[in-house]
C-alpha cells in the first residue's frame, strides 16, 4: 500500500477559487461590499472591510485616541503584531493567561489585573473555539472597559458574526485562515461615530492594486501545488539528495 507525506498546513482554498481570483473584474460583479455588510450587520453594528485584522485594530485605536499609558488587557496568546500595534499607540499591553482546558481567559486573574488605567480588553477566540463571553462582558461593563473580540481563528460562516455585547468583533480571511480569501478582514463596530472615524482614516491609506492581488494568487497557487502529497513527498526527498551532493563536492 502506497503512503504519502502530508504537509502540516494546508491552504483552505480550492484551485477553482484561485482561478476565480485571477479575474478581479469578474469578482467585482459577483461579490460586493454591500453583501458582506448585510451578512455581518445582524447585530446592528457598523461593518468595515479592511486589508487585515491588524489594519482594522490600528484604525480603531486611532479613532479611539486613548491617552498615552492606558492599559490594554489582552489574551496572552495572540500574534506579536497585535501587541506591537498597542505599543505603537503609546498604550501598555497587559497579558491575561488563559485556561488551557477552555482556552478562555482566567476570570480571577482578569479581575486582579484590572486597574484604573485599564480601558480595553482584547480577547482572542483560539484554534476555532468560540468562548462564552457573558462573564467577561459583565466584568468589562462593571469597570467600563471596551471589549474587542479577535475572531481571526474562529470564522465559521455567518452563523457567528460576533457577540452583540462586544464593542468590536474582528474577522480575518488571511492566507492561513479557514475559508481564506488570501487577505482581507471584517470589523463589526458598536459605536457608529468611531466607525465613521475609521472610514475617514482608512480613506487615507494606500489601496492594493489588482496586480498585487494577482501576484498573491499566483504565489499561493504555487504553494497549493507544492502541498499536494505526491509533489510534497518528492520535494522533501530532493533536499537530502541535494545535501549529499554538496557534501560530496566539498570532499572532492
UniProtKB/TrEMBL annotation:
Among Pfam families, the record links this protein to:
DegT_DnrJ_EryC1
Q: Which molecular-function annotations from GO does this UniProt entry contain? A: transaminase activity
Sorted alphabetically, which keywords does the UniProt record give? Aminotransferase, Transferase
Known PANTHER family for this protein?
DTDP-4-AMINO-4,6-DIDEOXYGALACTOSE TRANSAMINASE, TRANSAMINASE
> What is the protein name for this chain?
DegT/DnrJ/EryC1/StrS family aminotransferase
Species source reads Floridaenema aerugineum BLCC-F46
Amino acid at each position: 500500500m502506497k503512503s504519502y507525506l502530508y504537509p502540516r498546513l494546508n491552504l483552505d482554498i480550492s484551485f477553482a477559487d484561485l482561478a476565480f481570483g485571477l479575474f478581479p473584474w469578474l469578482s467585482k460583479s459577483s461579490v460586493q461590499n454591500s453583501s458582506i455588510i448585510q451578512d455581518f450587520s445582524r447585530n446592528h453594528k457598523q461593518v468595515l472591510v479592511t486589508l487585515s485584522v491588524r489594519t482594522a485594530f490600528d484604525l480603531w485605536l486611532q479613532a479611539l485616541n486613548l491617552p498615552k499609558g492606558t492599559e490594554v488587557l489582552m489574551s496572552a496568546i495572540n500574534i506579536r503584531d497585535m501587541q506591537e500595534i498597542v505599543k505603537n499607540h503609546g498604550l501598555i499591553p497587559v497579558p491575561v493567561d488563559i485556561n488551557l482546558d477552555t482556552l478562555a481567559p482566567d476570570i480571577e486573574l482578569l479581575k486582579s489585573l484590572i486597574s484604573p488605567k485599564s480601558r480595553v480588553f482584547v480577547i482572542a477566540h483560539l484554534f476555532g473555539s468560540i468562548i462564552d463571553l457573558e462573564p467577561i462582558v459583565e466584568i468589562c461593563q462593571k469597570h467600563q472597559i471596551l471589549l474587542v473580540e479577535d475572531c481571526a481563528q474562529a470564522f465559521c460562516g455567518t452563523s457567528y458574526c460576533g457577540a452583540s455585547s462586544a464593542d468590536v468583533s474582528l474577522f480575518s480571511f488571511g492566507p492561513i485562515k479557514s475559508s481564506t480569501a488570501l487577505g482581507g478582514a471584517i470589523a463589526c463596530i458598536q459605536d457608529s461615530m468611531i466607525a465613521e472615524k475609521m472610514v475617514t482614516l482608512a480613506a487615507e491609506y494606500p489601496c492594493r492594486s489588482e496586480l498585487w492581488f494577482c501576484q498573491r494568487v499566483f504565489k499561493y497557487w504555487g504553494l497549493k501545488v507544492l502541498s499536494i502529497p505526491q509533489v510534497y513527498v518528492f520535494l522533501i526527498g530532493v533536499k537530502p539528495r541535494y545535501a549529499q551532493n554538496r557534501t560530496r563536492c566539498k570532499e572532492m
